[in-house]
Amino acid sequence: MTRKTVAIIGAGPAGLTAALELVRRTDHRVLVFDRDAQVGGISKTVVYDGNRIDLGGHRFFSKSDWVMNWWQSILPVFMEDEQQSVALTYQNETRDFNPLRLSADQSKCMLVRPRLSRILHRRRYYGYPLKLNLETMANLGLPSMAKIGASYLAAQLNPRRPETTLEDFFINRFGNVLYRTFFKDYTEKVWGVSCREISAEWGAQRIKGLSITKALLHALKHATRLRQDLEQKGTETSLIERFLYPRLGPGQMWEEVAHLMTNAGGELHLHHRVTGIRRSGFRICGIEVLDEQSSAMRTIDCDYLISTMPLAHLTEQLHAEDREVMVIASRLPYRDFMTAGLVVKRMKPTSTVRAPGTNMPPDNWIYVQEPHVKMGRLQIFNNWSPYLVADPQTVSLGLEYFCGEGDELWSQPDGAFLDFAARELEQIGLIDRSDVVNGTVVRVPKAYPAYFGEYRSIDKVRAFLDEFENLYPVGRNGMHRYNNQDHSMLAAKAAVACILDGGQDKRSIWQINAEEEYHEEKAGEADRRELREAA
């Protein structure tokens, strides 16, 4: 192929996946621009005082063989426990990984981590997702369980049709009583609007086929299973029990991808903001870029543009002729995100303590469904990877808040916000504020594309963007779709395939995470050949 120039806006999972695939498979000039000081987007790892923060918690699990193999080609899997082994099944082949001890020269690796998430509701713990086990029954009591069962049966006999809103989605799968007990208040805390205003599409993409029936079948399967397979393809995403995780957090994966990409000839430009897009009709000609460190402006001619910038910004820079498209894009809703990173000497003891000295529970994260606090989730970084914590005699916590950029929560000074977060954690009985060692605040604008308001008209924005023959929106913000990082990677892979094929059909990109099963869940011979060639 004639050497072309591909400009990529954004150095998150989608942008870097596309960049590495392009430099591996073509001779194109590949340039990646990101306004941040580090790569990874929302999958970056924030470091403070030697502690590492994972924004939102990133499990490295996918039902796509291609994604799982791609990750392992970047960071291999190592085991810390000499008595532990694990079987990974991909491409219909099972491979046993021999236990290997971590050492300094094996620091670039992924660990196999157990998943435990629980719900804290009225000072009682429940499995997440909800498990119909003795603990749940004991916590709720027989009268409540009877009401939940009757409500679920009623929903199955008379489901809501059409299933339009997220409330419809939840009630059809869990019944009205369980919906109001565990789903309604928490979901509205996350999104800031009623479940009746959120599209059912969000549930279809994030919760997929999970239901009470699926939870029961999973419990029966778990009780009879003798050996766990990490791949777990037959398990709903919300029920996955083990996952891979980079030793130093998710950012380690994307820092290594960026390193491989630049070593292969790609270019990475951090502290660079794309301020304009040049077009000729419905063809992208180039981009205008501001170096925010030197204030230098330059114009980059390009043959293809892969964009992960928010659709509102992309549409604005393309100067859509249709005023309606501009208005829809500008009003697409987002939910912003804040993390209060706190290091504490110890937590208050609970019924399940993993580390007696610090009273640390075994959870990766705890969903805080206490109505009197604003906190949404609590991460325990020690349980994601012990290497995220500078002092193993302390507990590193991430208190997650969902908010709107510029609102009262977002605008608090860092010190005031950390004190507010610590008080909430004390209020629900998990710490004493006197045990807080230090902390930091991380704000993430446009962290969660939302499925309400003008989202109902997003197809008009997509139709406008699809008219550009050499423009490929990918990633969470680039598609305004609540993607996991593996979905973003698959969208990037599809965009690269479009470029290589010289075609303009972008349907394969938009199909990612649009249906109940992951797109390309079952990899074929083409994926195996691509992986061998990449290696």
Quick structural summary:
By secondary structure, the chain is of the alpha/beta class. The chain has helices at 13-25, 65-74, 134-140, 142-157, 166-174, 176-191, 200-206, 212-224, 250-263, 311-318, 323-330, 381-384, 414-427, 458-466, 476-479, 485-501, 507-510, 525-534, and strands spanning 5-9, 29-33, 45-48, 51-54, 86-90, 93-97, 110-114, 117-121, 124-128, 242-246, 267-269, 272-280, 283-291, 297-301, 304-307, 334-344, 365-368, 377-380, 395-403, 436-449, 471-473. The chain has 18 helices and 21 strands.
What this model shows, in words?
The protein is of the alpha/beta class. It contains 18 helices and 21 strands. It folds into 3 domains: 203 residues, FAD/NAD(P)-binding domain, CATH 3.50.50.60; 100 residues, no CATH class; 116 residues, Polyamine Oxidase, Chain A, domain 2, CATH 3.90.660.20. Helix 1 runs parallel beside helix 16 and helix 4 packs across helix 5. The chain is globular and about 70 Å long.
